[in-house]
Amino acid sequence: MASLLRAYNASLIRRPVATQSATAAVLFGAGDVLAQQGVEKRGRDHDFVRTARLALYGGVLFAPIVTKWYAMLERIQIKSKAGIVLTRVGLDQFVLTPVMVGLFFTTQAVLEGKGLGEARRRIESSWAPTLYKNWGLFIPVQLANFSIVPPHLRLVLVNVVSLFWNAYLSYANSASGGVDRELEDVTDSAEGVKDKAIALVA
User: Fold this and answer.
1) Is the pLDDT of residue 194 over 70?
2) What is the model's pLDDT at position 179?
3) Residue pair 146/85 in contact by the 8 Å Cβ criterion
4) How far apart, in whole angstroms, are the C-alpha atoms of residue 37 and residue 43?
5) Which end of the chain has less Cβ packing within 10 Å, N or C?
6) Tens digits of per-residue pLDDT, 92-125?
7) In this structure, are residues 107 and 57 in contact, taking their beta carbons and an 8 Å threshold?
8) How many Cβ atoms from other residues are within 10 Å of residue 121's Cβ?
9) What is the Cα gyration radius of the chain?
10) Closest CA to 87 of 158, 152, 142, 21
11) Coil/strand/helix, residue 182
């Protein structure tokens, strides 16, 4: 296991975009499996095409964009360490994240063949509640991330916590914004793995 982690860490440094893309594809797909089996209880009626759509979004869009974004944030230099952390977290959560949430719903609607009209409807119904839940989970995560986690491992931390967040996204997309008690349990589970993930990669 230790040798695998060393190899993965080396790959993150040598080929960051490719490695992060593969990681995100796996974890976005796993998040959808969690949503379908753990929340929706679909059993044998699992929608594998839906899982593939989520994995495609994670690997082809999310990871490359966020990897480059984190590299850009790393170039921001302020004398105060607290100032650097707050600036990076502020830009990440209040500039990039609203765009990425909208991109997610748009991409899924288009990949489902439902067009931009359906994407607009999903954004109108689901963008704000999804964004608010994201802030509640990821602002604390990113404060720790930009404070103590090495730069090449930051997206890894986000991806680990995102296993449960991706389940939420998949369900929110499928339900067009309908959020029930079971889904609250999923986001609570994400809170539970947050500290463990920070300890693992720090």
Assistant:
1) no
2) 40
3) yes
4) 6
5) N
6) 999 999 999 999 999 999 999 999 999 999 999 9
7) yes
8) 15
9) 17
10) 142
11) helix
Query: What pLDDT is recorded for position 45?
Result: 94
Q: Do residues 177 and 125 touch, judged by C-beta distance below 8 A?
A: yes
Distance CA 115, CA 156 (A): 32
Q: Are 100 and 61 in contact (CB under 8 A)?
A: no
pLDDT in tens, 118-131: 999 999 998 999 99
Q: Residue 120: which H helix or E strand, with range?
A: helix 115-148
Token reading at 2: 């230790």
Stretch 85-94: mean pLDDT = 96
Q: Quote helix, strand, coil % in the chain, to nearest 5.
A: 90, 0, 10
What type of residue is 89?
Answer: V
Number of continuous H segments (helices) and E segments (strands) in the chain: 9, 0
- Please check the confidence at residue 183 and state whether its pLDDT lies above 70: no
Q: Does this model's pTM top 0.85?
A: no
Task: Provide the pLDDT for residue 195.
Answer: 54
Tokens of 27: 């974890």
Cα torsion angle, 182, 183, 188, 193, sign: positive
Helix 81-91 vs helix 115-148: angle between axes, to the nearest 10 degrees? Answer: 170
Question: Is a pLDDT exceeding 70 seen at residue 178?
Answer: no
CA separation for the pair 55, 86 (Å, rounded) = 31
- Measured CA to CA, the distance from residue 93 to residue 138 in angstroms comes to 8
Count how many residues are written for the chain: 202
